[in-house]
Amino acid sequence: MQYEQCMLIKLDLEKIDFDLIKRLIDQKKYENVHEFIKLSIKNQLEEENSFKKNSGDLKKSILVDNKLSITDNTWKEKIPHIISKKSDSTVPEKKLIWSFYNRFFPVKIIVHKFGDMMGKENETEFDLFDVQRGCYEFAHEIVSKLKQFEKENHFTRNSKISTGLPTPEIELEGLKGKKRKLKQDKLDSSKRRFMEHFVGTFNKKSNLINGASFTLGLLNFHPTSDSFTISLSKLGKEFAMLKNPILDDGILTTGNFSFEETKFIFEQILPKFSLEHTIVKNIIQNLKESPLNSDELDKILQKFDKDICEFYDISSQDIEKKDKTIVQTRIAIMGRLYELKIVFWNIDKLGKSTYELNSKLIQNLESKLVKNSNLKSNDYHGQDIHNKDFRNLDLTGANFSDTNIEGTKFDGSNLSNANFLNADISTSSFRDTNLSNANFVNAKLIHSVCSNANFRNANLRVKKIGNVEFQNTVLDGAKLPHEFLKPEKYLIMFE
Q1: Three-state DSSP class for residue 273
Q2: Does residue 239 share a domain with residue 93?
């Protein structure tokens, strides 16, 4: 008679790992914890055996001429045709991006892997644990190679492309005793942080999933009668499909993102966070004039300290904590701008940071917004430029008289002293726009959004107005049309 070998095992599990195992058992994917451990050991042995057989080939494919071999990207041809039956869920607006020290590259890895899972399994919805595990394994594979590249090329702390990714297990090699225990604790902590913080974790109190990918609107949460599933949102699918220099081409020398990805984050994701969007625009405007050090940037941020403290629930009386939060916020925001190559970030021997604007990239971003070689400087008189993107531009004194600009976006731009005489501005957007002293005489302003705009001393004696949103709008000194007194007729919406 043959007997199976018995093994008495004591496991020090992270709570998240234990909870995930328990959930799998509750979902009847495994009979009990013994079956789970037995199969885990078997799978690991098979993986180790496979690794030994192919280790020679793997070592050759890791890094060749600063290139990285990672994954098959054929899923990108498949997922546009995989349609979810459930609509995108809405994410509550937040003023700042989720936390202090985070970057966008980890969430790019997550949507990339999610797309891969969709393509391989022809499904649109997955269990949170399956996504956490799949994304962690993918990120772990990547970070091992990134760390190697950073070490070989002597990357500084601020320039590392692996920021936010889990600590690789390779760092345990050669360590014993207390040092190994400390490194193992760091590894477990980074694993938990990546799975919970970047992918997401279920919050029983709110009955929602918290995490960067959900906060950014890249993943959706779908509750069911007894459980829930998650899916890639429309925005997340769009972000996943954009080509990435590291994940798609394996090139490590050009930064974390392509220009198209930077443009996408800058235009589609960042504006969802109203306060950070405003801060970033303010910082960029100041950097256009000259480089700034950390102290100078902290002074700029102090203009927003009330909102920042409110976001992080910090008492305005707690000066020490408030100042620390300002510094942490600056490092977080500038780290994200550095990752997108929007700014250059240098740290001197004393640890002081200096930031300089990547003017060429900003010019490219802004030139992509408006393309019309026939137009002279800010003079658009009589032109048909409907459905154009004029966001975040300096258009001081611009002439839009007799112009068709239906459906045009002016969000975040400076349009002070601009002339919209006889212009058709229907269905346009002026969120967070400076329109002080602008002239709208005889213009058509219908079905437009003017929330958080500044119309101080503007002439709003328009020809037609209706269905216009004026939430939190400054109208001090503005010349208003008589129709403002008849909102029931013209459906002008105020907060």
Answers
A1: strand
A2: yes
Query: Same structural domain for residues 223 and 350?
Result: no
- pLDDT tens digits, 446-455: 888 888 889 8
In sequence order, what are the beta bridge partners of 344?
356
Residues 379 and 327 in one domain: no
Q: What is the pTM of this model?
A: 0.64
Q: Highest-confidence range of 49-63, 71-85, 122-136, 158-172, by mean pLDDT?
A: 122-136
Identify the three-state secondary structure at position 384. strand
- For residue 46, being part of any structural domain is answered with yes
Residue 436 has, within 13 A of its CA and on its CB side, a CA count of 7
Q: pLDDT tens, 342-399?
A: 999 888 777 788 999 998 888 888 765 444 333 445 778 888 777 777 887 878 888 8
- Please list the helix, strand and coil fractions of the chain in percent, rounded to the nearest 5, in that order: 45, 15, 40
Beta bridge partners, 223, equal 228
What is the CB neighbour count within 10 angstroms for residue 334?
21
Q: Which of 253, 282, 315 is the last residue of a domain?
A: 253
CB of 445 within 8 A of CB of 468?
yes
Q: Print the domain residue range for 310.
A: 273-358
Q: Residue ranges of the alpha helices (H) in 7-87? A: 15-26, 33-62, 75-78
| Residue at 437 is within a domain | yes
Contact 80, 241 (CB under 8 A): yes
267 within domain boundaries: no
CA 29 – CA 389 distance, rounded (Å) = 50
Q: Are residues 117 and 239 in the same domain?
A: yes
pLDDT at position 272, please?
86
Domain count, the chain: 4
Which range has the top average pLDDT, 84-98, 133-147, 379-393? 133-147
Q: Which of 289-293, 365-369, 372-376, 469-473 has the lowest mean pLDDT?
A: 372-376
Helix, strand or coil for residue 388?
coil
| CA 189 distance to own-chain centroid | 23
d(CA 424, CA 417): 18
Give the pLDDT score at 368: 55
- Neighbouring C-beta atoms of residue 103, cutoff 10 Å: 22
Tokens matching residue 134: 């799949």
User: What would you measure as the largest C-alpha separation in the chain, in angstroms?
Assistant: 98
User: Is residue 90 domain-shared with residue 199, that is, in the same domain?
Assistant: yes
Element of type H or E holding 117 = helix 105-121
Cα–Cα distance list, 161 to 109, 216, 239, 485 (Å): 12, 20, 19, 56
Does residue 155 sit within a domain? Answer: yes
Instruction: Check residue 219 and give its pLDDT.
Output: 92
Pairwise CA distance, residues 128 & 119, whole Å: 17
φ/ψ of residue 10, rounded to 5: -110, 120
